[in-house]
Specification:
Elements lengths: L3 H7 L25 H6 L5 H17 L8
InterPro entries: DUF1289 (IPR010710)
Organism: Solimonas terrae
Protein name: DUF1289 domain-containing protein
């Protein structure tokens, strides 16, 4: 996995989207871990914010690995 600081130097922070795109009961995407506000902000977010979003999303997926799809 890439070092987050090298992503800043490259100015190319890839989207965490996995193509699953289903919201869980806790309000985050079951595929990438982002909440709706983060998904909406991604296109205009600077690299530092994108790295922060990726970190929060990854933490959500780790914290709630068994989250179920929202009804």
């Amino acid at each position: 996995m890439s070092n987050p600081e090298s992503l800043i130097a490259d100015r190319d922070v890839p989207s965490p989207c996995t193509g699953v795109c289903r919201l869980g009961e806790r309000g985050h995407c079951l595929g990438c871990g982002r909440v709706l506000d983060e998904i909406a902000a991604w296109g205009r977010a600077p690299d530092r914010e994108r790295l922060d979003i990726r970190a929060r999303a990854a933490a959500r997926l780790q914290q709630f690995p068994d989250d179920k799809e929202a009804a």
